[in-house]
Amino acid sequence: MSEPSPATGAATDAGARRPSRRSEPDRVPLVFARLRAFAGGAVGLAIGVLLVWRFGAVGKVIGAAIAAWSAFVVRAGILSLAHPPAAIGIGDGAVELPKTPYRPAPVKVELDDVRHVYLLRRAVPWSQTGPLLVIETAQGDFAYPRDWFDSESAQARVAELIHDRIGRRSPP
Q1: DSSP for 48-67?
Q2: 147-166 burial, b for 16+ CB within 10 Å, e for fewer?
Q3: Which of 29, 43, 26 is nearest to 102 (CA)?
Q4: pTM of the full predicted structure?
Q5: Which residue has the higher pLDDT, 24 or 116?
Q6: CA distance 21 to 24
Q7: How far is CA 45 from CA 54, 61, 70, 162, in A?
Q8: 3-class secondary structure, 73
Q9: Within 13 Å of residue 13, how many CA atoms lie on the same side as its CB?
Q10: How do residues 155-168 score in pLDDT, each as one tens digit?
Q11: What is the mean pLDDT of residues 62-77?
């Protein structure tokens, strides 16, 4: 029976920043469900107008609230048409984090300011779909729901890329 060979190479410090394998930053694009925004906005506006038109005082208040929410959803859809899709950029020295999938100017955060990156799979707010990618930084917290990515593996890829750049390992 043969013995395993000893590990080769220099030992690495678990807390040290690892050099990037690539010279250009990695970019993970975000997606926005335009059809859902426009269809939901149209249905909400129709229901809101119907409630305001046909019901009494309480129906008018509820209808106005539904119509206002629907207008906000349609506005988000229009903004997604006006701007190209945003992307999370992970470079050697900084991470570019967009606040929405259609915002043109992302927030640039230095890697030293990134505190935690993790996926919430079950403990998500009732208004979000799981899993939820959370990036905690010195400039604030950024939450990215599953709906904003092509797949769940894209969320995990962002977390892994940031962990690799800041020198931390994600748990298995």
Answers
A1: HHHHHHHS-HHHHHHHHHHH
A2: ebbeeeebbebbbebbbbbb
A3: 29
A4: 0.66
A5: 116
A6: 9
A7: 14, 14, 6, 41
A8: helix
A9: 6
A10: 889 989 888 888 76
A11: 92
